[in-house]
Structures are given as C-alpha cells and as structure tokens.
Design goal:
The chain has helices at about 15-35, 40-70, 75-95, 100-130, 130-140. It has about 160 residues and is mainly alpha-helical.
Length: about 160
C-alpha cells in the first residue's frame, strides 16, 4: 500500500542518507526537464548526467544492492523490481546514441524508481529490518554521497 502523499514518511536514521540521495536524484530529473524546456543542447545535459552517474548514482545503487536490499529475500518481488530498474537505468546512463531519448527516459524512469523505493520498498525494508540489519546499513553508509558542484548549470 502506498502511504498518503501529504504525510511525510518517518525514516530510520540508517536509511535517511539514502533518502537524501534520492532527493538529489529527483533534482537531476528536474534539471533534465528544465534543460529540455529551455532548449539546452542534449550533449550538455548528457555531460552532467554522466558526471552524476559516475559520482553519485552508481555508488548509491551499489550500497542499496549490497546493504539495504538483502534485508528482504532476493526472491522478494519488490527487490527484484528494484534490481531490474537499477539495471535498466544503468543502461540508459551509459547509452551514447539517441541521447535525447535516453535523457527523456532517465528523467521519467529515475523519478518513478525513486518514488517506488521511497513509498514502497524502503517502507517494507524498514518494517522488516532487525536492529542489527539497520545498524549494518548505517555502518556502511553514514553520510550521503555529495553531488558537489557542476560548472555548467544549464538548468538556471
């Protein structure tokens, strides 16, 4: 069940850094949208998404897959969905042809993926995780991955 949108979800402190990183991912989607709306050359946007993938999202996926998803069974339908979406998104970020199409897909699919993890998957993980499992997650990811600064703020 999806929680009501107007009520903030209380995250355990072990998962909070990942949720803050999700916020950065949603900002990426917004930046892509703004770039398209203002007619920015797709290659400029792609340079930023490449940097974001290399410096934030790739490691974020690795941490989720290694420390967060194992709280549930590898056979869990939600975990399977998240892993499939990670694979799909990785392919989109690495695509070097049809850049505009890939960026449009990233914008839509990453946003949907983040909403799914925040509203559904993380809730189930938080409900089922033991104190030890939450501690294990926290030990391996205490502070979120910083996005840093990007010199070409095409979205402004």
């Amino acid at each position: 069940m999806v929680p009501p949108r107007d009520k903030p979800i209380k995250r355990h402190k072990a998962i909070q850094p990942l949720s803050r990183e999700h916020h950065q991912g949603l900002l990426l989607c917004w930046k892509i949208r703004k770039g398209f709306e203002t007619g920015v050359e797709p290659q400029r946007i792609k340079k930023y998404t490449d940097w974001f993938w290399e410096n934030q999202l790739q490691e974020h996926f690795r941490i989720e897959e290694k420390y967060v998803f194992p709280v549930l069974s590898a056979q869990d339908v939600l975990v399977k969905q998240a892993l499939e979406e990670h694979e799909h998104l990785a392919a989109l970020f690495c695509q070097d042809t049809e850049i505009s199409f890939a960026l449009e897909m990233i914008k839509n699919d990453l946003e949907g993926h983040i909403r799914f993890e925040e509203r559904v998957l993380f809730n189930k993980i938080q409900e089922e995780a033991s104190a030890e499992e939450l501690q294990h997650i926290q030990e391996h990811h205490e502070k979120e991955i910083s996005c840093g600064l990007w010199e070409d703020e095409f979205w402004k």
